Amino acid sequence: MTDTSKRGFRTKLSHTGRAGKRVHGFVNPPLLRGSTVLYPTVAERRAMGARRGERLLTYGLGGSETHWALEDVIAEVEGGTRCAIVCSGLAAVTTPLLAFLKSGDHCLMPDSVYGPARSFCDSVLRRFGVETTYYDPEIDEARIGDLIQSNTTVVYTESPGSHTFEVQDVPAIARAAHARGAKVLMDNTWGIHHFQPFLHGVDVSIQAATKYPTGHSDVLIGCVTVNSDADWHKLHTTVRGLGQYASPDDCWLTLRGMRTMGVRLAQQMDSAMEVAHWLRRRPEVKQVLHPALPGALGHAIWKRDFTGACSLFGVEFRPEYSVASTHAFVEALELFGIGASWGGFESLALPTTGFVTRTARAAKFEGPLVRLHIGLEDVDDLIADLERGLKVLRDFAR
Fold it and tell me: Are the C-beta atoms of residues 90 and 222 closer than 8 Å to each other?
C-alpha cells in the first residue's frame, strides 16, 4: 500500500474523505441530512449511547459521513489527528477557548487578534471569571514568559495579525507557554496549508473555513483541529455540550470547495504578490503590510516558518492622505468589493483605520490603512482598477 502521508498537498485534497476509486458510485460522497437516528432494538440504542466519542450515527448533532469526510480533509491539511466542524469561524475561536479555560483562569491574547475574538474575551469570558491580558504580537520568548501567570492556561496566537499583519514567533511563544503548562491556541486561517501549526508547537489550530476552504463566499463554517487524544477529549466534550453543529449542506459545499483549494491558493498567492509589489512602487504608499515581501515587517519569521502566503494584506498610505481620502479610494474601485470576509474568488478592499482596537501598545502607523484581498480576477485588470482608485485618492487630497 502507498504511504499516503507522502502524497502532495493537492493530491491529498483530491482524495482524502472519499471512498476510493474502486468503489462503485459517484466521485463525491453523498449529502446526508437528518436529525433522528433509528435503532433496531433498545439494546442496540443503549450500546451506541455508551460509545461516546466514536464516529457513530447516534443523533443529528453527532454528525454523519458528510461531516466526517470534511473533518478528515481539514485534519490532513492542518497536520493534526482529529478535527471538529462548527457553525462559523467565530465559533471555531470561541469553542476551544471555552474548552480550555475555566473560571479563575488567565488567558493571553495578541493585541492584533481578530476583533470578535477580543469582544468574546472582554464580554463572555470576563463574565465567566476568566481574565485576559493583551500582549504585543511581536513579543519575544522572554517577555511572553514574564506575562504567563500561575493560572495562565491558554496562550492564544494569530499570525499574521488581523488588519495589521504582525508575524508572531509562534515556536518561541509555544516554548514559553509549554514550559509553564499552558496550551497554545492559534488562529491559522491566513496560514492554511502554508503554516503547519503542530510542527511549530501549537496545540489547537483554528480555521475560519468560511474563507479558502469554501472559496465561494456563500458558506459560514469553522473547524478546530488538535493533535492529541487528551486535547480531542476536551474539545469534543465542549463541542457536544454546546450543541455546536454545522449544517451537512454547508459541510458538503465546503468539502467540494476543498477539492480546488490548492490551485486557488497558488493562483491567489501569485496574484497578490504581483499586486503587492506594484503597490510598493507607488508614491502614494508608505508601506505594504505583506510579510512575504522582502524587507516587509515580519518577513524574516515568515520566511523561516511559512511555505507560502495567502492573498490578504494591508497597505499603509502616506500620512499626507486622510482617512476620508482612503474611503474615496475604496469606493472608486470597480472590481474590489467593500467587504469584511475574504478567501473567496472575488477581490475586496476595506479601510481599517478607526476600526482596529489596540491596548498593549500605541499604534505604530502614521498613515491610514486599507486591507486588500486579491481574488481570481486577471491581475492586469486589478492593477488598472487600483490605478483608477489612486487617482481618486490624489484628487481627493488636493
Answer: yes
- For residues 168, 172, 175, 176, the Cα torsion angle rounded to the nearest 10 degrees is -80
Angle, helix 229-242 to helix 89-100, in steps of 10 degrees = 110
Question: If the chain, 398 residues long, is cut into consecutive pieces of 10 residues, what is the mean pLDDT of each piece?
Answer: 69 70 70 88 81 74 90 94 97 98 98 96 98 97 97 98 95 98 98 97 98 96 98 96 95 95 96 98 98 97 97 97 97 96 96 89 89 97 98 92
Q: Answer whether 383's CB lies under 8 Å from 275's CB.
A: yes
Q: Which residues, including other chains, have CB under 8 Å from residue 300's CB and lie 6 or more apart?
A: none
Residue 314 CA to residue 353 CA, distance in Å, equals 11
Instruction: Name the architecture of domain 4-258.
Output: 3-Layer(aba) Sandwich (3.40)
Q: What single letter denotes the amino acid at residue 268? A: Q
Considering only CA atoms, which of 37, 34, 33, 68 is closest in space to residue 53? 68
DSSP secondary structure code for residue 243 in this structure: T
What CATH architecture applies to the domain 261-397? Answer: Alpha-Beta Complex (3.90)
- Give the residue carrying C-alpha cell 504582525: 166
Domain ranges in the chain?
Answer: 4-258, 261-397
Q: Quick count: other Cβ atoms within 10 Å of Cβ 380?
A: 9
Q: Is 394 exposed, middle or buried (0-12, 13-18, 19+ CB in 10 A)?
A: middle
Residue 260 CB contacts under 8 Å (≥ 6 apart), including other chains: 13, 215
Q: How far is residue 41's CA from residue 261's CA, in Å, rounded to a whole number? A: 43
> What is the value of pTM for the model shown?
0.92
